[in-house]
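Support case: user asked for a sample of complex input and structure output to validate their parser. Sending the pair below.
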Amino acid sequence: MNNTRSASSSVSPATPDLLDNHRQSSCGEFSRLEKRMGPRNMTFHSKSMPRGSMFLDQEAFRSSHDKSSLQEEDKEITESLPADRFFDALQGPELETLKEKEKIVLPEDKTWPFLLRFPITSYGMCLGVSSQAIMWKTLATTNAERFLHLTQVVNHVLWWISLVLLLAVSITYLFKTIFFFQAVRREFKHPIRVNFFFAPLISVLFMALGIPHSITSNLPSMLWYFLMAPVLFLEMKIYGQWMSGGQRRLSKVANPTNHLAIIGNFAGALLGASMGLEEGPMFFFAVGLAYYLVLFVTLYQRLPTNETLPKELHPVFFLFVAAPAVASMAWTQLCGSFDLGSRFYYFISLFLYFSLVVRINFFRGFKFSLAWWAYTFPMTAVATATIKYSGEVTGLATQVLSIVMSGAATLMVIGVLVLTVMHAFVKCDLFPNDVAIAISAEQPKQKKWFKQLKNGSFGLKVSDKEDNQIDVEAPPLLNAHTV
Amino acid sequence: MNNTRSASSSVSPATPDLLDNHRQSSCGEFSRLEKRMGPRNMTFHSKSMPRGSMFLDQEAFRSSHDKSSLQEEDKEITESLPADRFFDALQGPELETLKEKEKIVLPEDKTWPFLLRFPITSYGMCLGVSSQAIMWKTLATTNAERFLHLTQVVNHVLWWISLVLLLAVSITYLFKTIFFFQAVRREFKHPIRVNFFFAPLISVLFMALGIPHSITSNLPSMLWYFLMAPVLFLEMKIYGQWMSGGQRRLSKVANPTNHLAIIGNFAGALLGASMGLEEGPMFFFAVGLAYYLVLFVTLYQRLPTNETLPKELHPVFFLFVAAPAVASMAWTQLCGSFDLGSRFYYFISLFLYFSLVVRINFFRGFKFSLAWWAYTFPMTAVATATIKYSGEVTGLATQVLSIVMSGAATLMVIGVLVLTVMHAFVKCDLFPNDVAIAISAEQPKQKKWFKQLKNGSFGLKVSDKEDNQIDVEAPPLLNAHTV
Amino acid sequence: MNNTRSASSSVSPATPDLLDNHRQSSCGEFSRLEKRMGPRNMTFHSKSMPRGSMFLDQEAFRSSHDKSSLQEEDKEITESLPADRFFDALQGPELETLKEKEKIVLPEDKTWPFLLRFPITSYGMCLGVSSQAIMWKTLATTNAERFLHLTQVVNHVLWWISLVLLLAVSITYLFKTIFFFQAVRREFKHPIRVNFFFAPLISVLFMALGIPHSITSNLPSMLWYFLMAPVLFLEMKIYGQWMSGGQRRLSKVANPTNHLAIIGNFAGALLGASMGLEEGPMFFFAVGLAYYLVLFVTLYQRLPTNETLPKELHPVFFLFVAAPAVASMAWTQLCGSFDLGSRFYYFISLFLYFSLVVRINFFRGFKFSLAWWAYTFPMTAVATATIKYSGEVTGLATQVLSIVMSGAATLMVIGVLVLTVMHAFVKCDLFPNDVAIAISAEQPKQKKWFKQLKNGSFGLKVSDKEDNQIDVEAPPLLNAHTV
């Protein structure tokens, strides 16, 4: 098998990919094919992928089968995956690692085309940098921090950096959507990744919040409605799945990245209220608070059905801090003052932050990945809220707290930025093969008993398709015992 | 068996039932018996039911048994059913359909007496019409809607209709309580139906809220205490079961109809506050909010133990909308203005409403049933809240929203009314045999292994009777394997 | 075996234990050993325990083994227990009763030394009496209750009693910490007991709240920071475990005693606000409210994984009442008036109180134990809140309610006090052998299949160590069937 593979990969990787400016090689055949066939009739892999070269092992397998089985596999590859498959085939805190015995539909031993390896989680970078722009804007405009004599230049510079970053990431992802729509679709079906589809929307909200005063101080309120419409539609989709989605119901998919589905509401309420709107922002705040409550309770309960919550704490837990911090700022803006409500959210955010900081040991030993960016903006958010708090409760303690937390957030962003650049350009492993989007639709053969059981041929009464997880664990030992 | 049955049903169905004015035939023997024996010594089926005619198959079975087994079965029929039996024997979103292999204690191939077929869910009609009366009252008295030039006549007419309806349903159900007390008791034990016992209480509250100004504007505050006492007692019972009731605990019985157990609190708070009371309404509002919070989180989590939540969305999900809508109006009345709190509940209600409306496809393909009435009043409630909101936030948008939502609610009520009348008088299938109250106390014989396991004869350590659901699924496949 | 044991217990119980002033005999050898060896090299049982006398059965067993197995057992005894072991080995509402087939590392047929039998739950006495001191202080200083002509003498007397009691209990427990540190550590690891470690901290807060006016009216605000620091650290530890602790996660350990982990926040907020502080108390209130919300929902759901919640209601359920009652008083103090927020918490507390009182039957048939003391202070707390409420809403009804509830609380405290004295000095069974801290680290041999399964030797894929409860129930019946 290896022979056929290596033979295929030696097929002229001549024409360089236009988008692949990160020195990834060996994907020439993709770009070549894409150019020849045009983007229209390209889908994820069943069509746009060079069958002859990349699916050689499958081809070999197929040759011993008839046409019907070939067609069946075709269908298998293009059909959308149920959420269960992601849970079955993947493991790790973000469902990114393939389980043993599972196979993927793309070759594991080659580097895939850059676009296929470019995940939606890349928007985490935009969140991190644009939230920094907001923090430095707040730092420069809060009276309590005036003694620092900061100018708005930092905000200005950061804002332009985040604009460039946002455009770069968006254009890249747009190309991915055009050329590999199936891959994007699979990311959208992925129980963890789907939450990151809020990240571009939140990034834009952050850009609007962090816009330097020298550019404009008054954004048109029409913009707000334009920005919040996709947030509203996406959360109707996601919250609806939580309640009614079977395999995607909340008791199953709950994990800290769900916070991203909430933060958009609070960021939107903050933006709207700072524009002078009233009813719309309150609407988003109310909806956000109601679902935040559901999420907070669910995450804290750590239900036995939450398969995605890792035992070891993980940077993703920092997302716990972001939602109440942004909520605090939004409420302050809605009410016009940092009142008891603002304090309520702010103190919860502060407590969660300290709770996580003292567990610093749990945040070691993890390999760097793009997702780390999503862990930087909560620190920035709570630092910004602290600056706002220090504007209300003036005193040495709050000023020191503001400076320490802002400094920690900035250092964290710089650190992650350096790591990102190093991994992107030096180690060239920032974008590894994204196995999460390439799992096969079928489970490996060893688990055939499972299907038989599901079909009731053994007399097992599985009342609800969603619940059979519980039953499913038993059979293997049964086999082990009786066979 | 069929022979004996058909023979029995041919026994002179001569004397018509007094209460059965809906053209149901073939239950003459019931009314005859009831008249002869008097209502006193009539219980559900063990006594008041004509053994010789309806339980012939059981009788045939009994003839081959001794006296003791006969007595045992007697006990079995009269004894109250544990909640588990309802879950075991029934299926469907409202536990109304009999599972395969399950048997019922009443003959399936005959139409039962009308009273036995008259369920507590009939009060849904009262909820739907009386809430419309409130809506039209609000519509006629809100300044923002004055341009419609509505008179209070619609409110007046609707209020009298709902009064007549409420009296009719109540008298009928009272007769059911008198003649078939066991059937009522079984409805009260039914995990879904029990929530509908709040419906008569809420209907009366709605009647008091919707009373036309021409009748009275000042209800005596004594009335409020009189109306809320049964609500308080019933919810102490139900909420207590949620926490401590074993088989009826919340993680097991949670489903959207539970909202009925909460809405009484908010409706009561609204009525009390509009009467000028303060402490009592606040008490009910606080308790309602605390339990609504628990319920909202639980329903959104969709725990794996919630067997009653259907995979497909169902009109019953509209009950999600009602509680926050009524809470919004109650809070407005308690605080004296449509403040941030009122907006909070109202916006949640609005978001839930839109979430459900966009899922319109999920609400198709369901057979009409009486329970649909309970799905109409949430629409009316949110429309009424919208009218109140448009009184606070005046503008074209809110006025249009009020009119559209009021119109939709009214159309829905008219639609369901037409369907009800059609099914009641044309198709004559509005009240089918109510199998939910006639399940046998014993599980069918096939499941005998279950009992053995429970008794520990196989060495299974079932730690908690309530948890054995999880264990129970395994054995059948074990048998299938080893046998 | 009994022979060797009784022989050992006859070994000269001559020197009386200094601390054992409750007439417990037959533990002379402990005190003798302790004196001879000094407290330094004494650990729980592996070292401080007289091997020759108390572990004779183990010794007998060991004699047939080699050195390595002996060392292994040594390690087994000193190593800290995982939370799972407590759930596996113990049962009952507070995990205090040993399950069948389980063995303990201390002899069951002897009375252990007093310190080993002195549990952390003893602080419940301090909670009960010191909360009474607060109640009588409130009763004497509220205008609405002035007609009772109460002096502050009762408060004064009760405060001194609770001070003495607190010192006595603390000194005793301090000795336990010094001499039997392993036992204290095991109490801290015990899923239920760990919550009682908040009790000493709350007791001190209650002492500060109930301090008579004649001693001081102005406590230094420094004291507050000093008192709240350990509360903050302990709750960071506990709440962190709820979220991330694997076996100690909330969905597993949730039970009414968790309320003790919340009440400290509200009591601290109340104390701080009454001292004139603002930000600190609000911080604790916010954090307390957020976690109370999580706890309230979790406890009401009664998840199937909550093994520790007893089916029968138990006095421990009264803890439900305490948290909202204290929260109501804290909020009143924070806002400066008994506003809608205060009413909200108070009414919830009142409803829960009534809900429990009407279930009086569930509180019968339980053996008296020290833990009952923890059930008295919720009654006192809600009575105190009622007095405060009657100060806001004056009238005959609230005055009667205040007096009735204060009377009930006082009677309950007196009753439990009498029972305690009787059990301590007459029946001498107040402190039975505390089996909860003496369970062996290993499960009994019958469950060896469990380990094999866990190690995967049967091919069982246990995805998450925390979830295997569900899987674990199946195998025994498998064995029973196939063997």
